[in-house]
From TrEMBL:
Residues reported to bind ATP: G86, Q87, T88, G89, A90, G91, K92, T93
Keyword set, alphabetical order: ATP-binding, Cell projection, Coiled coil, Cytoplasm, Cytoskeleton, Microtubule, Motor protein, Nucleotide-binding, Repeat, WD repeat
The protein, known as: Kinesin-like protein
Residues in coiled coil: 377-443
GO terms of molecular function: ATP binding; microtubule binding; microtubule motor activity
InterPro entries to which the protein is assigned, alphabetical: KIF21A/B_hel_1, Kinesin-like_fam, Kinesin_motor_CS, Kinesin_motor_dom, Kinesin_motor_dom_sf, P-loop_NTPase
The keyword Signal belongs to this UniProt entry's keyword annotation: no
Listed Basic and acidic residues bias regions: 540-553
PROSITE patterns xref list: KINESIN_MOTOR_1, KINESIN_MOTOR_2
Length: 563
C-alpha cells in the first residue's frame, strides 16, 4: 500500500495593515527576509516556516503554493487538511475565503472557493481524458459538511431546521472512529453536490448561517471553529502499467482483460479556527468568559496534540486527541491519514506584537506533526490489485517458460534465450570442426602416399648405385617401404590413443608373405632388416637393422685384422 510520512507544513501569512491601523498610526513590526521563508518580529525574534507570505501576497499565490497539490492528492485518494490559525482580525476568514463580502472580486477569492473550482475542473478533466483514451469515464461523488464548534458543542451549519436559539441545547451529532482509525460523524447533514455552483452556494449559506447565529447571540463568529469538509468518492478504471504493457496482455490468449474498477475516497477539511487571542485581552466576563475559556480549550488541546506528535524522541504514547471535540474531529488529520497545512495568520502592526509572537510560536510547533499519508482505497480494490500483481507475475513466468522451450527468435526471458543462442553457437562450431577433421584426414592420406612415393624413389636410386637393376627386387622394396610408412602412421595414431587400441592395432596388422632375409641385397641391410617380423612393430624392424649393421661392421673389422 502506498504511504509516506508527511509533515504538517506550517505557513505564515502577514496581512496588510488595515486603513484603521494606518489612521491610528500603527507601525509595521514584521519583516520577511528576502528569498527566505523567514520572518523577523521586532528586532530580534526570527522564525522560519515552510512558506512565508508577506503583506502583498495575492490570494492566488497562497492557493497555488500550498493548497493546489492537496486537491490533486485527493484525486489519488489522499486526505488533506488546511488549518487557519491566528488572532481575531489576523485574516483567517479572508485567507480561507468564507467571508463572502458582497463586493469581493475574483482575485480576492480565498482558498475554499478556489479549491472548489479546482476540484470540479479536475473532475471534468479526468472524465474527458478517459473518454479521449476510449476508456470508461471515472465516476465522482462529491458531498460536503459544514460544522461549527462552539463551547465544545458541534453545530451543523447545513441544518436548515436549526434554531439559532438552540445553540446551547445538545445536538445529537456524534464523533466515531472506525477500525482503520478514520474519524467519521453521525447526525451531520451531508449534502450531495453535483456542480461547482451548488457547492459554492452551500458554502455561502453555511457561512451566512454562522454569521447570523453569531449576531443573534451577540458574539463574534471568531469565538468558534468552522470546519468545512468535502468528501470525494471516485470510482475509476484501474490503470496498471504492468498489464497495459503489450507483451504481457498479448499472453492472455487473445482475450481482452475485463475492465476493473477501484474506489478511492478522500476528505478535505478546511478549518477556520477560533481567534487565538488570550481571554483577558477581550475583557470578557460571565457567559462570554465561559465561551472564551472553551475556545481556548480547543486551541490548547490542538497545541498539546501537536506537541505530543512532535515529541517522538521521548516516545509519547498518549496523544490527547480526546481532550477537545476539535482535536477529536481532526484526529486523522493530525498525525493521521492526511496531508496537513497550517497557515498562521498575523497582523503586521506593532500593537498586536504580543499576539503575533504567540501565533508565531504556536505555528512553530506544527512543524512537529508527522502525518502518515495512506491512499484510501476500498478493500475490494486492494484485493483486486493484489490478485492483478499475482497474475502479472505468473504470466511473466509462463512467458519465460515458453521462450525457454522454443527456438531462437522468440522474445522472452533473457536467461532462456541466452541459453538458446549458446546452444546454437556450439552446434555450429561442432559441425565446422567436423568438416575440418574430414579435410585433415584427406590431407593426411595425400601426404602418406607422397611419402611412400618419395621413399621408393630414394630406394630405387640406391639400387641403381649398387649396380643391380633387378625389376623384381625394386618392386619388392617398394612394397616394403609402403608397408613401413603405413606402420609408422598407425604407430603415430596409436600413440595418441589409449593402450588397448594400440594393442589391437598390432594384432590386426597383416604379416608380409615373405621375408627379406632370404635374399638380402648388399648395402641394403639397414633398410631391409626392419621388414623381418612386421607384427613386432616398426621400431623392432629398425632395431634389427641396427643389429645387422653392427654385425657387418664386426665382420669387416675381423677381416681387416686377419689381413
Ligand atoms: P479573522 O478571520 O482572522 O478574524 P478576517 O479574515 O475577518 O480575520 O480579516 C480581518 C479584516 O482584515 C477583514 O476586513 C479582511 O478583509 C481584512 N484582511 C485580512 N487579510 C487581508 C489581506 N490579505 N488583504 C486584504 N485584507 C485583508
Ligand atoms: Mg474570521
Amino acid at each position: 500500500m502506498d504511504s509516506w510520512n508527511s509533515p504538517a507544513w506550517p505557513g505564515l501569512r502577514i496581512r496588510p495593515q488595515l486603513s484603521k491601523e494606518k489612521i491610528e498610526g500603527c507601525h509595521i513590526c514584521t519583516s520577511v527576509t528576502p528569498g527566505e521563508p523567514q520572518v523577523l518580529l521586532g528586532k530580534d525574534k526570527a522564525f522560519t516556516y515552510d512558506f512565508v507570505f508577506d503583506l502583498d501576497t495575492w490570494q492566488e499565490q497562497i492557493y497555488t503554493t500550498c493548497v493546489g497539490k492537496l486537491i490533486e492528492g485527493c484525486f489519488e485518494g489522499y486526505n488533506a487538511t488546511v488549518l487557519a490559525y491566528g488572532q481575531t482580525g489576523a485574516g483567517k476568514t479572508y485567507t480561507m475565503g468564507t467571508g463572502f463580502d458582497m463586493n469581493i472580486s475574483e482575485d480576492e477569492q480565498g482558498i475554499i472557493p478556489r479549491a472548489i473550482g479546482h476540484l470540479f475542473s479536475g473532475i471534468e478533466e479526468r472524465k474527458r481524458a478517459a473518454q479521449s483514451q476510449g476508456m470508461a469515464a471515472p465516476e465522482f461523488k462529491v458531498s460536503a459538511q459544514f460544522l461549527e464548534l462552539y463551547n465544545e458543542e458541534i453545530l451543523d451549519l447545513f441544518d436548515s431546521a436549526r434554531d439559532p436559539d438552540a445553540r446551547h441545547r445538545k445536538s445529537n451529532i456524534k464523533i466515531h472512529e472506525d477500525a482503520s482509525g478514520s474519524i467519521y460523524t453521525t447526525g451531520v447533514t451531508s449534502r450531495l453536490i453535483s456542480s461547482q455552483d451548488e457547492l459554492i452556494q452551500c458554502l455561502k449559506q453555511g457561512a451566512l448561517s454562522r454569521t447570523t447565529a453569531s449576531t443573534q447571540m451577540n458574539v463574534q463568529s471568531s469565538r468558534s471553529h468552522a470546519i468545512f469538509t468535502i468528501h470525494l468518492c471516485q470510482m475509476r478504471v484501474c490503470t496498471r502499467p504492468e498489464l497495459v504493457n503489450g507483451e504481457v496482455t498479448s499472453l492472455l490468449d487473445g482475450t481482452q482483460p475485463t475492465t476493473e474498477y477501484e474506489t478511492l475516497t478522500a476528505k478535505f477539511h478546511f478549518v477556520d479556527l477560533a481567534g487565538s487571542e488570550r481571554l483577558k485581552r477581550t475583557g470578557a466576563t460571565g457567559e462570554r468568559a465561559k465561551e472564551g475559556i472553551s475556545i481556548n480549550c480547543g486551541l490548547l488541546a490542538l497545541g498539546n496534540v501537536i506537541s505530543a506528535l512532535g515529541d517522538q524522541s521521548k516516545k509519547v504514547v498518549h496523544v490527547p486527541y480526546r481532550d477537545s471535540k476539535l482535536t477529536r474531529l481532526l484526529q486523522d488529520s493530525l498525525g493521521g491519514n492526511s496531508q496537513t497545512i497550517m497557515i498562521a495568520c498575523v497582523s503586521p502592526s506593532d500593537r498586536d506584537f504580543m499576539e503575533t509572537l504567540n501565533t508565531l510560536k504556536y505555528a512553530n510547533r506544527a512543524r512537529n506533526i508527522k502525518n502518515k499519508v495512506v491512499v484510501n482505497q476500498d478493500k475490494t480494490s486492494q484485493q483486486i490489485s493484489a490478485l492483478r500483481a499475482e497474475i502479472a507475475r505468473l504470466q511473466m513466468e509462463l512467458m519465460e517458460y515458453k521462450a525457454g522451450k522454443r527456438v531462437i527468435g522468440e522474445d522472452g526471458s533473457e536467461g532462456y534465450s541466452d541459453l538458446f543462442r549458446e546452444n546454437a553457437m556450439l552446434q555450429k562450431e561442432n559441425s565446422a570442426l567436423r568438416m575440418r577433421v574430414k579435410a585433415m584426414q584427406e590431407a593426411i592420406d595425400a601426404i602418406n602416399s607422397r611419402v611412400t612415393h618419395l621413399m621408393s624413389q630414394e630406394a630405387n636410386l640406391m639400387l641403381a648405385k649398387a649396380g643391380d637393376g633387378n625389376e623384381a627386387i625394386g618392386a619388392l622394396i617398394q612394397n616394403y617401404i609402403r608397408e613401413i610408412e603405413e606402420l609408422r602412421t598407425k604407430l603415430l595414431e596409436s600413440e595418441s590413443m589409449n593402450e588397448s587400441l594400440r594393442r589391437s592395432l598390432s594384432r590386426v596388422s597383416a604379416r608380409p608373405p615373405y621375408s627379406m632375409s632370404s635374399s638380402p641385397a648388399p648395402g641394403l641391410a639397414g633398410l631391409c632388416s626392419p621388414a623381418a617380423p612386421v607384427e613386432t612393430e616398426a621400431s623392432d624392424v629398425l632395431r634389427r637393422a641396427k643389429q645387422d649393421l653392427e654385425r657387418l661392421k664386426k665382420k669387416e673389422r675381423r677381416q681387416r685384422r686377419k689381413r
